[in-house]
Here is the input.
Amino acid sequence: MISVALIGQPNCGKSTLFNQIAGYKSLSANFPGATVSYTKGKTYIGNDLIEVIDLPGTYSLSWYDDAEKETIKALFSSDIDVIINIVDASTMIRSIELTLELMSLGRPMIVALNMMDEAENKGIYINIERLQDILGIKVVPIIAKKGKGVKKLLEEIKNAQNPRKRCIYSKNVEKEIKKVTECAKDNIKNVQWPCKLFSIKAIEGFGPCEKFFEETECKPLLDNAKNALNNGLDIIQERHALCMNIFENSAKVKKIRKKSIESKIDKFLMHPVFGYVFMFAIFILIFYVVFTGGVPIENLVIKAFDKIDAYLASNIHNKLLFSIVKGGIDGIGAATGIALPYLFPFLFIISILEDVGYLPRIAYLMDSTMHRMGVHGVSVISFVAGYGCSVPAIMATRILKSKKEKYITAFLASLVPCSARSIVIMGLAGYFLGYMYVMGLYAFNLFIILISGIILKKLLPGMSPEIILDIPPYRLPTIKTLLIKTWYKIKDFIYLAIPMLIVGSIILTLISYYKFDSYINVIFTPLLTGVLGLPAAVGVVLIFGILKKELTLIMLYQALGLSSISMVNSVMNPAQMLTFTIFVMFYIPCVATIAAINKEIGTKGATTITFATLVLAVLLAFITKIVSPLIV
Here is the structure.
């Protein structure tokens, strides 16, 4: 089996190419750093099986965040036979710099020159044969999103060869590099990097390479080389100049007279005033579409399952058997009638925003606001991902550079109402109180996130380093891509959450049948009834909600002894519904999210966030209990 690694700078279309080759297993998004861990897939070239590895985007072989570190680790630790370097043809001067570093590895390699259509739209015309001759590497032009050139690229994998050329610097620079390289060969062992590349990175001040020179006789030579080459800046400048020369010798640029549609759109969407108006209008429209589209479907399903319940009651006379069967049916009804009508359209619209390229525009607009919370606009990818699922939202913090920024983003992302919490918001507050209350709850959630971020920024030590955000061009995704992407996001709910909904519903029914729920609820009565004014019966619901938030709504009406979610208003008044919704919106993340937080920022951080969210939920729900009679 041939192992192939896809590597390129962020937003070069790498994950899109992976999806074309190996099927839709990697989430592509028009946003730098969207791939935060590498994904593997398999396909056939003729009769030969190949393994394709989609590595996180990186600007160079020096890593500055966890996503880039994953790439370098995989590149040197995995048994990779062929490297496919994806280069964005529309930004070739910048993109080709990573190519020059990859050439130094001396491994079989192919350059996939992607986005050829966008390059031509910018007036850039590249001579493929000339570029191929300059680099000494096979270059294959492709348009990954349309699948053009992908077959040719796959055919070239078997014929991939080591680069015929290397990156050569000026005489004085090469002289200094050679001194360090020769010393490193004799004195530094157990280094997987090619010695010259390793020495260059050390001269440039890349810490992981530089530390190998400590306490060796090469350290004085390294220090001399750094002084002579301006701490590696001379090497970097020459590499930049070489990239420019490669572009000038292999491409022609024609002037585009017409002002691009993209710039006209950005004139409004990124305007310092109107940009925010459009942003909020877009999100209001999203929630309106999701809610108004979901309610009719929910009503139809509820009516259908009411008839099923009536049929079961008249045909199953054994109370225990009836409880078990009804519990399972109610779980299916909750998934199809509450979750999917809201979840699918919401995730589909989020996929559109990702692929079109609007997310980085939001990051740009929100950067100044997010600075107040100790994070950057790029953290918006975690927040937006959180509206789908909190787990990938937490994982996306790998693209952040400082521990403080990671912690704050992870904490705030855990407060974003995921699709499961959105089910409660839309299925309870929205269904009984109206979609304006849904809008108010989401606005209130954003306000709490902002205040929490400002507090965390003041409490936590350290500074967040500045970043440069790459604003990509707009790209029109295909319906097929959006549907498959939405399916990828929703399939975990179908495969995992729905079975848990069914099992959880049956368990809750049995707990109620054997009267165990009263013992559980006694423990929570002082908090729920005494402090928050909620029915004591919801205690068991909140316990299961920690395991899986999707269980919360279906278990609510079961715990209250009702036959349908539509009857909740007969037991809970509007103020109690609002209080319960606020509590669920902010309280302890699900177990999977806690595990993701533990992996990304450690056990201490996960414990602190879990406890803090519980305290925050109790405080906000208590305030809601007091003020809700005035607003509902």
